[in-house]
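Notes on consecutive records. When two proteins share a document, each keeps its own sequence and its own token line. Never mix them. Below: protein one.
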Amino acid sequence: MNAAAKIDDNVTKLEVEAPAQPTAEAPAQPVAAPVAVAAPVQPAPAPKKPRRLGRLLLMVVLPAALAIGGGYVWVTGGRYQETENANLQQAKVSIASDTAGRIVQVDISDNQLVKQGDVLFAIDPEPYRIALAQADAAVAVARVGIEQLRAAYSQAMAQEKSDASEVDYAQSQYDRAADLAQKGINAKSSLDQAKNDLDKARQQLAVAEQGIISAKAALAGNPDIETDKHPTVMAALAARDKAAYDLAQTTVKAPADGVISQASSFKVGQYVGSGTPLFALVETGDTWIDANFKETQLTHMKTGQKAEIVVDTYPGRTFEATVKAIGAGTGAEFSLLPAQNATGNWVKVTQRIPVRLELTDADAKMALRTGMSASVTVDTGVARGLPAIFGHATAAEAQ
């Protein structure tokens, strides 16, 4: 019976699980087939990492690598000394007139670029032309005076010759009168007259000789001197040259290539005095850089070393330069009020020393203007190196 009961149960289950047959009243409904769902697989546990060993390596290796890298950079560095405390400088010439007068011509304007020899302005030249004509007349008068002195010298020479003849004649008369008086033929009065005539002739000869000396002195001690070599004529010629120079200075020209500055109020009709500054000329051909380096950066810096300049106005352009000179002292030494360090509250501060660099690129000077900020890098050619670390010990061993 048990076997029969089990068979009946199985048949009943099959009937229940079998799908219903479709009928005319109720159409068949689609039935989804059963889908098998896989059970989730649990991952195998990962092995534990040695965290303590990794942290130890990170704490030791990374600082060591940074220290080694930093040490290498420091030892191999120091060759290039840099500073941003630098400014470009150009010579500024104050333009003034050597002569006084009224401005009749102005050929410049503010911030105008000029070349050497260009006319800047002109002063009324008429008064100086008159002065030059007067100086020419004075030279002619001086030359005539020298010719008169030569004539006076010739006259003195002739007078001296005539007086010498008179002395000879008076001497012969005196000798004849003395001979006759000795023989008792002539009276003594005739002898005295002859002697008086001889003395008078000698005095006139002495005066004539002094006249020759005076005439010779008037000719500067040389009767054959050239007219234009005489001091009087030379003085007149110098005055004439001065008048010609003053006339030439009425036209003022640019002493060098540059840019006109501070000339906005300079106009025609203005009266200017001699030596009065009128405006400025910034020379574009004379350009240099004043860089203020720390005193600790000048250990290996010398004149003639190469440098690179980067101007803030042209950030992508590099200018070549050369160290021209190193300042004689720090900026504090030449300040208006130098620091007094002989006090109890003295604090050591790294000082800066100016270094002048000369641009070697002539074409770049035209693009630069005075006062521009710049960055300077000087190649000293000497890195720090290991001897720098043990420098004191090495010096001690050398001693």
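Protein two starts on the next line and is unrelated to protein one.
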Amino acid sequence: MTVYLPIAELSVNIFIILGMGAAVGFLSGMFGVGGGFLITPLLIFYNIPPVVAVATGANQVVASSVSGSITHFRRGTLDVKLGTVLLVGGLVGATVGVWIFSFLRSIGQLDLIVSLLYVILLGTVGGLMLKESISALRRAARNETVTLRRPGHHNWVHRLPLKMRFKKSKIYLSIIPIVALGFGIGILTSIMGVGGGFIMVPAMIYLLRIPTSVVVGTSLFQIIFVTAYTTVVQAATNYSVDVVLAFILMVAGVIGAQYGVRVGQKLRGEQLRALLALLVLAVALRLAVSLVVRPEDLFSVAVGGLGY
């Protein structure tokens, strides 16, 4: 069964799109990531134009994140105060990101830049996460204490001014790195169509020393509003959001996220991080291969406006 996408200007198999949305929604609920780092490359692999894939992928992230964050809120694993501070930086970053997106599109370098950013960021983050999670799993196998937050341990982040107390997360931390993290994620959301959870989750755990128990829900909370804002601005500025594609992805994503949260609650933190790292590296590898492999069609032919 096929359906026509008016903005992408092509027909697609609806069951394949539903499968993509459900799978990404499942991973969103399981890992606490928006899923944009996966849905955008999947859409590009399925021949959806990158401009449409980036803008519409961000829209799908909203649906799966809402579904997952509601579940975490009910379970008391969402720090709304911390998420709000992240959101302030995220909205500013998203605004800057949309401007950069429009500029790259105007000079014809958007497709290349998006692919390169994915390979660099996913490869780096995935590699670091995999290394740490393997070490944690080995310590757990030897019955050693596996902890990411040692009592009395502080890094340079914890010595910054403008501190605020976050009771749900049980931390006393400067808002400067939190806002900066949100700002960076906002830029990535606009340019790459990602929720940014694949960077925000490890940054919150390893850099800010936020307890893993509240990281997933808080990450999803921030992702909701930043991606929703990005979608609206992209639609108004670049006219690149395909409503039909977005609706199909949203329906499937909401359903998949509910099951993902349930599975995620049954796995240990180091297991979740190892699985996420492998997934991130797999996507990076696939994109890297597509950049260097010789294409089947070396040239494309387009009809010009000469009236022939």
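For the record: The two ends are 35 Å apart (CA to CA).
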